Amino acid sequence: MADPIPLTVEFTGGLEMLFSDQRKHKISIPGQDEDGSASNVAYLIHWLCDNLMKDPRKEMFVLDDSVRPGVLVLINDSDWELEGEANYELQPNDNVVFVSTLHGG
Amino acid sequence: MADPIPLTVEFTGGLEMLFSDQRKHKISIPGQDEDGSASNVAYLIHWLCDNLMKDPRKEMFVLDDSVRPGVLVLINDSDWELEGEANYELQPNDNVVFVSTLHGG
Amino acid sequence: SQSSEWPLSSTEYQRYGRQMIMPEIGLRGQLQLKKAKVLIVGVGGLGCPAAAYLAGAGVGTLGLMDGDTVEVSNLHRQVAHATGRVGMSKVDSAYEYLYALNPEVNYIRHSFHLSPEHAISVFEQYDIVLDCTDHPTSRYLISDTSVLTSKPLVSASALKTEGQLIVLNDPPKPPGDLFGGPCYRCIFPKPPPAESVLSCGEGGILGPVVGVMGVLQALEAIKVLTRRSEAQGRMTDAEPATAQPVKASLLIFSAFSSPQFRTIKMRSRRADCAACSAKRVVTADSLSSGSLDYIAFCGRTTPVDVL
Amino acid sequence: SQSSEWPLSSTEYQRYGRQMIMPEIGLRGQLQLKKAKVLIVGVGGLGCPAAAYLAGAGVGTLGLMDGDTVEVSNLHRQVAHATGRVGMSKVDSAYEYLYALNPEVNYIRHSFHLSPEHAISVFEQYDIVLDCTDHPTSRYLISDTSVLTSKPLVSASALKTEGQLIVLNDPPKPPGDLFGGPCYRCIFPKPPPAESVLSCGEGGILGPVVGVMGVLQALEAIKVLTRRSEAQGRMTDAEPATAQPVKASLLIFSAFSSPQFRTIKMRSRRADCAACSAKRVVTADSLSSGSLDYIAFCGRTTPVDVL
Ligand SMILES: [Zn+2]
Ligand SMILES: [Zn+2]
């Protein structure tokens, strides 16, 4: 068994409303998913839905097994598209931010 | 002999003018000072005057063996007063920023 | 009031002297600003401060586009308007304020909402566009039109206590050229579900939050207009000019968080982008003929003229 | 226009509704703002936008202090003034703009420069002070007076392409109480050598740079005035309310760097601070009697009324 992975996850742009109105969460997730693969961001998103999200409106966060359109995922201050997207394997103390894009002006 | 210490030093608030008009410098300083002590920020300030500063106006940067009044020294985004000031022993890849306070408005 | 021997009038030297003495601007940069035509789409919480600082800096031509009228509920954040101008078109109200601040600027008033039919013909008159609107529908339309007309786009948004800013399509290379900056669709290929979109009216907005983002839009526009060459970086003075696809940089602001500001490295152009790639489906014809339904695309339910 | 049954008039509900629907403000916060008396010292590049957003937000009383008159070289960045008001006192010029934006605010005009003799009596009339001045002499005087009168101080500065902002003396505990926020002298015990100080006139200034800092000052003032209890943190919503000496947080901005913004952890009160410690030498008497020579202290050579 791999060690649990300590992470900081943050929610902004309104997503914090889905997570007990709290922006910053220090969490620890299993080091492997159910198949024994190293935990990646796809697994983290599932884990957050199952373990951290109290709001029943899952569709405000996930759609078709990934984050919904209009949500950016930032890994250590880089867009996850630069890091391998959902396949990025999480490292201890990574900072993962979920940002809903804003449209007001 | 201790290994050289790679550092990023930055100058802002006008101090960059004294350092070839360049804000960010990647440097490597000796791991020990002349007395064989671990290199600290006091030593770094000397080293910068001797090795990086091309401008002859040393008094715009140092006074009485430290930075002049009105210059903040930030070590990894904390005021150096929280880190031991001039006695802070530099670690590889530290980020040290010298900021001249501004007064305009 | 210009003499034939000096590139600027003595009034202009006086008015812009404090910015011209900086090497980042100088006479060169001031003349670039004077030559520049800037379009601000949306004269609300973002557009008011953006317009004020661009007018102050002396851009030659400043276009203002908005179809709304001033309401008293705007005034806590839309600081170019005034209580006595409630009911007036936002464009005319802002014009009164801006003309009083700097009459040297040529102001062009577009007192209507942007629509796909005329977007291209308006954008073609300008050098750079600021998206100061407040709905995803307009954000996609403005980005698509910026790509089609090759204009850099400074896009910002704000809601409640947070703001976001990104410079897009910069440099504005032709569609298919991966060395152009990414567009809004590169970053957000799919629009958000309609039910996830909150407006400032619904969600609320703190005045200085949207104000900061608008002022920063003016700053980024000035940086784009006065930079020395296209190859130089946008948000930094330290990046080497290498032949790498240009990545965008997203600034996010959160008034009650620490740190308040974060700078995020974003992607370069998307090879399959619907607007800016070789495989694009957004064309001038499809856009202006109305065959791209921005409203349906963004799942909008309120009338089109709210754009 | 207020009914006896509602804490705000219907106009006020309309005008401030967009910020009142946010939990961070609400009716509670709006009433705190309405009750608040805010002093802005310096109605220039920082003071203009700060005043605009504080007036917009509906602070009850807004004091404006400045002894200068409007010059055309101010207008690229001092966006509350106007070309037609060149030569007018900056305080009167800003008042015209602000009154038109929001006539519900009680504006108090102090059309003179701050001096040690009357600083305390002016500051005593307010709840919070914004330092929007442009010289170290005034920065020390304003900080000392804020400590002596127990007012939180939102201090900002800008030059060329850079800006700095710090909230000081917050919470404003009595001198000697280490649980009060640090003052300007805690951070800068010694003034800079006169020859190292550049003004905006000498060094130049980009309008949106000073504009951003001024808008952020308004934001920090609103945060201080509307927070739920003194024990809560200033710049963050995440800090636990522990009995630790309060550290300050310095925001530094650099328009052409990446990242543009940095947040720096600063120190708490200095045990030997000349102004806010048990060992202080700055007292109400020494200050107002003129025995503290701020001019000589800061090595200033130009006349005192430039403050
Ligand atoms: Zn694209
Ligand atoms: Zn102190």
List the topology elements.
The complex is a heterotetramer, with two copies of chain A (about 100 residues) and two copies of chain C (about 300 residues).
Chain A: E1 5-12, E2 24-29, H1 41-51, E3 62-63, E4 66-67, E5 71-75, E6 78-79, E7 95-100
Parallel strand pairs in A: 1-7
Antiparallel strand pairs in A: 1-2, 3-4, 5-6, 5-7
Chain C: H1 10-20, H2 26-35, E1 37-41, H3 47-57, E2 61-65, H4 90-101, E3 106-110, H5 116-123, E4 128-131, H6 136-148, E5 153-159, E6 162-168, H7 184-187, H8 200-203, H9 207-226, E7 249-254, E8 261-265, H10 284-288, H11 294-297
Parallel strand pairs in C: 1-2, 1-4, 2-3, 4-5
Antiparallel strand pairs in C: 5-6, 6-7, 7-8
Helix pairs in contact in C: 3-4, 3-9, 5-6
The complex binds zinc ion (2 copies).
Total separate domains of chain A: 1
> What is the highest CATH level, the class of chain A?
Alpha Beta
Written as H for each helix and E for each strand, in order along the chain, the element string of chain C is HHEHEHEHEHEEHHHEEHH
CATH superfamily grouping of chain A: Beta-grasp domain
Oligomeric state of the chains in view? heterotetramer
Count every helix of chain C, treating DSSP H or I runs of 4 or more residues as helices: 11
Largest sheet of chain C, if any?
Answer: 8 strands, mixed
State the shape of chain A: globular
End-to-end distance of chain C, in Å? 39 Å
The ligands found in this model are: zinc ion
Overall pLDDT of chain C, averaged?
90
Which ranges of chain C are low-confidence, i.e. pLDDT below 50, for 5 or more consecutive residues?
230-240, 300-307
Give the C-alpha Rg of chain C: 19 Å
Class derived from helix and strand content of chain A: mainly beta
* Fraction of residues in H or I helices of chain A: 10-25%
Biggest interface found: C-D, 68 and 68 residues
Outline the biggest β-sheet of chain A: 5 strands, mixed
Contiguous uncertain segments of 5+ residues of chain A: none
